[in-house]
Every structure is written in structure tokens, then in C-alpha cells.
Amino acid sequence: MICPACGLGEVVPTQGPGRRWPHKTIPDLELPEAVNIPTCTECGEQWIDDETGAAIEAAADEAFRAALLEKADDSIHTLRRHRVQQRALEKLLGVSHGYLSKLRSAERGPSPHLVAALMLLARAPERVEELRSAWSMRVSEPIPLFAGIESLAWVGGTVHNGATDQSPASAKQIEVEAA
Ligand SMILES: [Zn+2]
Q1: Residue 39 Cα, ligand 1 centroid: separation in angstroms?
Q2: Across-strand partners of 23?
Q3: Strand 11-14 to 26-30 pairing
Q4: Which of 113, 127, 144, 167 is 20 to 30 A from 18, alpha carbon to alpha carbon?
């Protein structure tokens, strides 16, 4: 059909790389090259009917599952390099023994929640210890302040973390002691 947008090009099923769509948690998921999207040869406008839409959705779901596995794998490797033991990680994240090593063969892939936790830990492996402490029920256990708390806590000359009238320097000190 002739493109209703420009009236010049023809709308033809088109495959190719670089077509990124927001899908679930991923803002720029790349669709598989083989997915056909009716596209104008002149202006590039895409014309998606129900049938094509369903096919795109299915392909995006597939690509999303692959992306979750890849991100989980990358994060697990990074944490391993930082000597975080897989068994410890499984306990902290509440998944069964061995789950992280057989992600790829598991019937269902990892959930976005699990992958989110893995990615955050891989970006700051020191927080694994913090997570262990956060799971503890003992109130005497100091809960480490996280990086960046200083700017939140230091408002108008008063430290709003239970103490008052402290300088930013002593707020920093609290953070160091707790770490
Ligand atoms: Zn067009």
C-alpha cells in the first residue's frame, strides 16, 4: 500500500537491526532482525496492525527473556570476580540452592526482580555485606548508611539522622564508622 503519512513511499514488511522498543523493564530492547514490521520505504513510518502487533509482542517477550538471562549472567560473573560466593548470594536473595548456576536450563528464566537485585549488587559488590546485615533481626546490628546519605541527611545545618547540630564532617564520620 502507499504510505498514508507521506503519500510517496510504499509500506512493505521490513526486517533489520537497530529497532529498539520499550518493553517491560527495558527502555530500549532491540527487536530480533527477522521480525517483519510494515515500514514506509520513503519516510520510515511503521504501520502496525493487530496481527503484526501480536508478532512483535511475542518477539519482544523472547528478546526480553534473553536479555534477563544475559544481565543475570553478567552480574553473577562480576560478583564472582569480587569473591562473592554463589551459595551466599542464593541465600541472601532467597532462591534455592544451585538456582543461580542453572538459570539457563531452568524452565522459567529469572524474574525481573531477581535480576534487578543482582544488577544492583554487581554494581556495588560491597553492598552484599550490607544486605546480609539488613536481613538481620537484631536491632543492635548497625545498619550501614549508604553512599549518598550525607547529602540527604545534611539539611540546613541539622543532621536528620537522629542526631542534631552536627557538622557534615561528623556525619561523614558516622558513615565511616557504620561501614
Ligand atoms: Zn511514508
Answers
A1: 8
A2: 26
A3: unpaired
A4: 113
- Domain interval for residue 167: 149-178
Query: Cβ distance 51 to 38 under 8 Å?
Result: no
- CA 97 to ligand 1 centroid distance, Å: 54
Q: Are residues 80 and 122 in the same domain?
A: yes
In the reported structure, the alpha carbon of residue 75 is separated from the centroid of ligand 1 by a whole-number distance in angstroms of 42
Query: Is there a domain that residue 170 lies in?
Result: yes
Give residue-wise pLDDT tens across range 28-87: 999 999 999 999 999 999 999 999 999 999 999 999 999 999 999 999 999 999 999 999
C-alpha cell at 93: 536473595
Is the residue at 144 inside a domain? no
Compute the distance between CA of residue 14 and CA of residue 47 in angstroms, rounded to an integer: 11
Please count the structural domains in the chain. 2
Longest dimension (CA), the chain: 73
